[in-house]
Amino acid sequence: MPSLANKRILLGVTGGIAAYKSAEIIRRLQDAGASVQVVMTHAATQFITPLTLQALSGNPVHLELLDTDAEAAMSHIELARWADAILIAPASADFIAKLANGEAGDLLSTLCLASRSPLAIAPAMNQGMWRNAGTQHNIERLRGRGIHIFGPTEGTQACGDVGPGRMSEPEDIAELIADLFETGSLAGKKVVITAGPTREAIDPVRYISNHSSGKMGYALAEAAAEAGAETVLISGPVNLASPDRVTTISVTSAQEMYDAALAEVEGCHLFIASAAVADYRPVQVSEQKIKKSADNMTIELVKNPDIVSAVAARQNRPFTVGFAAETANVDDGLERHARGKLERKNLDLVIANDVSDRTIGFNSDDNAVLVVEMQTSESIPKINKSILARQLIAKIADMIPS
Ligand code: C5P
User: Fold this and answer.
1) What is the mean pLDDT of each run of 10 residues along the chain (402 residues)?
2) d(CA 337, CA 342)
3) What spacing in Å lies between the alpha carbon of 341 and ligand 1's midpoint?
4) How far is it, in rounded angstroms, from Cα 333 to Cα 354?
5) Residue 43 alpha carbon to ligand 1 centre in Å
6) 16 CA distance to ligand 1 middle (Å)
7) Quick one: what percent of the chain has pLDDT higher than 90?
8) Residue 322 near ligand 1, beta carbon < 6 Å
9) Is 268 one of the catalytic residues?
10) Best exposed site among 72, 235, 285, 334 by fewest CB in 10 Å?
11) What residue spans in the chain does CATH classification 3.40.50.1950 cover?
């Protein structure tokens, strides 16, 4: 079964007898590595208790759209942004009709409208209701909007009927959700990504560094691996686990990152420089801890090698993507700065973000970026970094020669 490591799945449970299988779905998703939050409709609570699903998911179950306490903990928009994918299982005929109409009368349907993540439903209902032209018309409308329909399967139903309408089995549903993340768009390609900060030693205990968390680079590595690439992540010191199926090379200084990047660039099709490399390092690294004595001290610095420029300057260079972390918003010339970087460093693409906005960038789980090419640019509004990474990888995969 493909992995769901680090994936965040929002499980929507609607009213139907198959709701008892939602408990098992939570388990199967967790077995594959996902974290799960549950949203139930009122009808669903007639079939299985929120307490059961709360105990299994390890998270409070969300029930109400207009609930001040729940909104204070995690607003419905945050919840929509949190999800890497929304799975509605079971999806009742009534909920499918609401979804097809774009309704937002309860929490779950509102989340479905607010989210930009993949949405999948596992219908479950009586065979007559499933076969009904009204339901079939709604299913076709959902399919046309890119919503994934898992099942239903045929067999004996709770009501005694035999026919199509049984919800797919929990392990099949978990596998289909995991398949959504496997695109294959970078199959056969080698991708090298730098991430995190670098540390430039002053003496054995002190260093110069920055606030980069590495989250964006790690999310990109995960998305590249998901897309089928042989993925190498060259990472400065961060507090993140190495993503599944990614070869992680840990480095400390800019010079070490440079050496590792140039050793890995051979045979590489895509190089993404998301690391916040320290621009300068101390000329002298003291072997002993520097003692406190004078009131003032000066550290002389020398420029570090520019890793992404060195990669872009090679013959047979990979498709090369840089980041531009600027304290300038869109109106203040973020695009102008980014395009300058694109030209100066001979890059194919620059992903620019405004690091003065504390709700995005550096240490945040979210990011909003401007993707700048030579002639055009595209703005991607605030979204969680793993969804953004997937969108960026999909866009870049389209641009790379096959
Ligand atoms: O020049 P500046 O640091 O603003 O450029 C940022 C881009 O260049 C990022 O993609 C960063 O990873 C890369 N970079 C690099 N080596 C350096 C400095 C920046 O690869 N020494």
Assistant:
1) 83 97 98 95 97 97 88 86 95 98 96 94 96 98 96 90 94 95 90 98 97 94 93 97 92 98 96 97 96 91 98 96 81 85 96 79 80 93 89 95 80
2) 9
3) 9
4) 10
5) 53
6) 54
7) 79
8) yes
9) no
10) 72
11) 8-178
Ligand 1 geometric centre to CA of 25 (Å): 43
The CATH classification of domain 190-399, taken from the options 3.40.190.150, 3.30.9.30, 2.40.280.10, 3.40.50.10300: 3.40.50.10300
The whole-number pLDDT of residue 279 equals 96
| Model pTM above 0.85 | no
Confidence at residue 57, expressed as pLDDT on a 0 to 100 scale: 97
- Among 220, 308, 354, 355, say which to mutate for ligand 1: greatest number of ligand atoms within 8 Å of CB: 308
Alpha helix stretches (DSSP H) within 58-201: 68-73, 76-82, 93-101, 107-114, 127-131, 133-144, 170-180
Catalytic residue among 1, 77, 113, 159: 159
Q: Is 220 in the pocket of ligand 1 (CB under 6 A)?
A: no
DSSP label at residue 276: B
For residue 122, which of 156, 171, 158 has the smallest C-alpha distance? 171
Q: Is the CB of 193 under 6 A from ligand 1?
A: no
Of the candidates 1, 14, 31, 389, the residue with the CA atom closest to the CA atom of residue 176: 1
